[in-house]
Design goal:
Arc Repressor Mutant, subunit A, 73% helix, Rna Polymerase Sigma Factor, Chain: A, mainly alpha
Length: 188
């Protein structure tokens, strides 16, 4: 991530190609976050587009280019929230679990015929369903910490909350995942 600060500075200095480099570097990460948050490919693609449009419009307001990743994830998370709220109705946790499709955004790099691959795909599907049943804040805390790999301080920064709140959201989210796994018939 050390190179991102230099790339942001280049863009701020007028290098248009630097923004393309930013997009190429970060679009898959933002897509992965959005897909995990929303569970829908089209919605995730919309979030990616809206995120980078927002970044392009407001990057000059970024005071610390070294904090670009946190700033970017915050923008993406806000667009995920907006996307979810734009849906015609709120879904219950059970409906969200049912809505999670069979298509996997995180393919496993095993041949489909091996037993390990089948078990890995099944495990991914179960985890996706358990995450889909969480509140938005709990899901975000888990995704940012466990999938994106942010520290708890960074999770709190992205979510715009105190560290204690981020810890609480992560803890309670993981407890809820465990409950959802039990509902799905998985022994924990």
């Amino acid at each position: 991530m050390a190179g991102i600060e230099e790339t942001v500075r280049r863009f701020l200095d007028g290098d248009e190609e630097a923004f393309s480099q930013i997009v190429r570097t970060w679009e898959k990460k933002i897509f992965s976050l959005a897909w995990r948050m929303l569970g829908n490919r089209e919605d995730a693609q919309d979030v990616v587009q809206e995120t980078f449009l927002s970044v392009f419009r407001s990057i000059r307001k970024l005071r610390e280019p070294a904090r670009f990743p946190i700033w970017l994830y915050r923008i993406a998370l806000n667009h995920c929230r907006l996307q979810r709220r734009s849906r015609p109705h709120d879904l219950s946790c059970e409906q969200m679990v049912e809505q999670v499709g069979d298509e996997d955004p995180f393919p496993v790099d095993f041949p489909a015929t091996t037993r390990a691959a089948g078990e890995a795909v099944e495990t991914i599907d179960i985890i996706r369903k358990a995450l889909a049943g969480l509140s938005e804040d709990h899901r975000a805390a888990i995704i940012l910490k466990e999938y994106v790999g942010l520290s708890l301080d960074e999770v709190a920064d992205v979510m715009g909350c105190p560290l204690s709140t981020a810890k609480s959201r992560l803890y309670h989210g993981l407890q809820n995942v465990q409950q959802n796994l039990k509902r799905l018939g998985v022994r924990t």
